Amino acid sequence: MPMPSSVYFCLLRAVFLVCFVNPLIILGLSEDVNEIQDHHHHQPKENLTGLPIVTFKWHHVQTPYLVIIWVFVAGLAKLSVVELSHHVTSVFPESGLLIMLGFVLGGIVWGADMAQSFKLIPPTFFYYLLPQIILDASYFMPNKLFFSNLGAILIYAIFGTCWNAATVGLSLWGCYEAGVMGNLDIGLLQFLLFGSLIAAVDPVAVIAVFEEVHVNEVLFILVFGESLLNDGVTVVLYNVFDAFVSLGGPRIDAAEIFKGIFSFVVVAFGGSFLGIVFAILLSLLTRCTKHIQIIEAGFIFVVGYLSYLTAEMLSLSAILSITFCGICCQKYVNANMDEKSVTTVRHAMKLLANGSEIMIFLFLGVTAVDTEIWVWNTGFILLTLLFVFIYRIIGTFLFTWMLNKFRLVPIEVIDQVVMSYGGLRGAVAYGLAAMLDEDKIPEKNLMISTTLIVVYFTVILQGITMKPLVQWLKVKRAAHSDLKLIEKLNNRAFDHILAAVEDICGRIGDNWWTRGWNRFEENYISWLLMKSKARKNRDYLFNIFHKLNLEDAINYVSEGERQGSLAFSRSDEAANVDFKKQFGSEFADVMPNIMVDMSNYELGIEHFSVTSIVKDTIPSVSLDIHGQDRKNAMDDINAHHLLQQHLYRSRKNHRHKYSRSHFSINQNEDEVQEIFQRTMRSRLESFKSAKMGVNPAKKITKHHKKELMHKMPNGHTDSTGHLYGDEVDRAVGRDTGAINSTFMRDMYTIGAGIENPVFLPDMDSPAHSPPWLMETEAVAPSQRAQRRLPWTPNRLRRLAPMRISTCSTDSFLMADVSLTLEEHEEQPQTDNEDMRPVFD
Amino acid sequence: MGTSQSGPVHRFQDLAHKTGFSIEEIKTLNTRFLYLTQDEDTLRREHLANVSDLALNPIRRQIIEAFFDKRNMGEKERGCLQEIGFEEFVTVLSFFRPPKPHTADEEMKNIKKEKLRFLFNMHDTDNDGIITLDEYRCVVEELLSSYEIIGAETAKAITDAAMLEVANVTVGQMAPDEFYEGITFEQFMQILKDVEIETKMNIHFWNLDTMTVQCGK
Lengths: 840, 217
Fold this sequence. Notes:
Radius of gyration of chain B: 20 Å
Order of helices and strands of chain B: HHEHHEHHEHHEHHH
Largest sheet of chain A: none
Helix content of chain B: 40-55%
Shape of chain A: globular
Number of helices of chain A: 32
Low-confidence stretches of chain A: 1-7, 14-44, 568-633, 648-654, 693-840
Distance between the termini of chain B: 16 Å
Helix content of chain A: over 70%
Low-confidence stretches of chain B: 1-5, 210-217
Oligomer: heterodimer
Mean pLDDT of chain B: 73
Shape of chain B: globular
Number of strands of chain A: 0
Strand content of chain B: under 5%
Number of helices of chain B: 11
Structural class of chain A: mainly alpha
Largest sheet of chain B: 2 strands, antiparallel
């Protein structure tokens, strides 16, 4: 046997062994592998007379090597599936394509081996592939939606599954008795067992297909929630029937059946309860992981997995356990952990879940290429397909009909069709079928092959037809709205209104319960499970606001950089000014005034702002400044230079300081302090300018604008056509800068770093005459950036909060000296917006 | 209430016809009305202030005002009433009646519009057809007032951001000298068009809690 090909053999074989074959099979097969390996290694051993320089130690690394090779192959499979031409992917769902790719890979393996010794085997599936998928699904579950539809979901998940199991099992048994299937060694109980394993809709398959379809959220949560919970139910049902089968027909009496039902309840609810307990533990744990930030993300996975295994150990429903663990912990965990850890969790969760999903589908395909498991019985297989399909539809319509009597918003017929058509079976069914005991169920292989056919049929055929069906039926799609904030506000107002009207009518309805729960949750549960600091920021409105602001800041910086703003890439000559000292005195002086100023200003401006949403409490640039001449042109240049030296540079460069337990962009405290003080200084200056009698630019109206144009001193008034051209900007910018620098000089004479050589006037750079010179010295973006940014619709929206409420930003600033880097990067927005009126 | 006199029954039928409630629902609501007013004929604001659950509602003021707002009575008048009778009470509540199944599309649109109009009026306190920034700010401040951590300033900032969102979506790119006056009803409809208000702004009017009426007082 030539060397390379046999190595290849070993590789493939061992992958399967290691990954997906239970210990027994591994034992059985490893002999086989060892034989080949012995064959290989025979020769080197014989020749071993001296010290070998390198040796081939395949069997040392065999196990992990093969695992990783298969993971790699799975990754490549996903890549190739995604990169396929658009025509293919728009028709086929990814899951179906992966299964088909699995056929091909399985074919290769089979062709090499002449037998498919490798299968997706239950322990691997249930212990290593499934948990993270369920955890991912539950961790990202939209909780409000889930719980507001919980009733319907439970009905479908519990009664729907029982209905499916019972009807499919009984109908098959009926047909068997009628002699359609010929000679099979199956009794009623076995049929019911089979029915229970084939009953459950599979979350993996459902997510994979529905994710691509984008149906409306209620429909999605119904199908998805059902698939998630009924997995738990079906496993329980399976165990009960499995026990019945072991017990044997004659020994089952009323007491045993009662015990079966009771165990069903205990297992399902016990599992859920266990999950909640673990969720509480996890939330408590994350309350105190502040100092081990780098590993706190790991706890989510570890504790989640622990809840799964513990439930399994106690023979409770492991799937339900991990589901509820994920659902219940998400809110508190996300609030408690650092933002970075939350991001880590999100990404890692998606990575793991996606990875397993690919493996599962791939191996569902690979498994099929095997002559051993295929037992064909036309009657059994076709009837199963038929019954699975029919009873799913009947069941859905039946339970929806009952639910619609109580639902405020009835589930529409179209949605019901999609729901019943979305009854995809998947790997859980296969895993359960493969777990059957051959001693008790002689027709195990028939069941496995039937299950596989059902899985292929539903995932591939129904998966392909789902999208056209949804389009054809005009199912309500998920609405995408740009209005993040107003939507949240409206939703919240809405909840309150409904609750109030219910109160007035004296009805104890859903809203009453929701509100009661919310209050309880807020007062007690959050108190217990959340950091006090996290409780503050947890309001979801605030979160949205915060997120938008962060996004703005990031966009702003990147856009500024893209447009070549120099402000973001400054030279290294740092100005060594001791800000701490100077700032202390300066700031203390002006501080009270600021407060007074602000409040006065507030009052004064209030009646003004009815028609204008722009309300700059900090008069950034006065419109009147154009009245002032360009006599200060030199100051302009000087000031620019000063700023240039002194600007904060967004330093993202790492100082290469390796640490296992910390991962941070270098950010020493001095730097933060410095940024803060610079920003403050710019604020102070603008206040000063306001106090010095310059008219504040609080209202920008057409009128003002005209005024502005008239007042332009540089003879540009007539060039309205080029109003936003560089010249005007430049001129205006220069003026502003000029004015600004006057005040700045005042400031520095008070005792700031004017004695520092860096700040001394420097005349040699008039060519750089800076149009972006503003009174703001923090990160002033280039003129270009300033001029253009606000005009894209996004920017207008995003920048809004800062522009309008400079006041509040300031108060944030003042309240919290130890601001983080990000918050400072938001600052330019304010400045930018402050400036905007001038260019309007 | 069980004893039927020809007067009330006739009145109820009229009301049922007018508002779309069933006679049963009208009867239950009447019981509730009498409980709230303590058997008087008219309902005043202080009556509603006695509803204990309402006390915790941050925007109760607006909701209570909506009950006394003439615009919600189906008339063209403006302004506020000091007290309302049962008919007005039911009229206001009928905004929250779920639409009957198999309603035609046209009618559904009207229902949606009415419901939105009710919400709009609630925000548009001075009835000039525009929700101005100040008006909206009031709403948001009240809305967030139950979270003591979020100060008025944050509320203001949030309002402003929200308002600009609206401006951005409804008006699109504004000329530099344009300013956004506030949300008009058309814009209000536009921003809420994706929210299926006709299916959400509903409450069940069966199973009302009449127990308190019998035991209470």
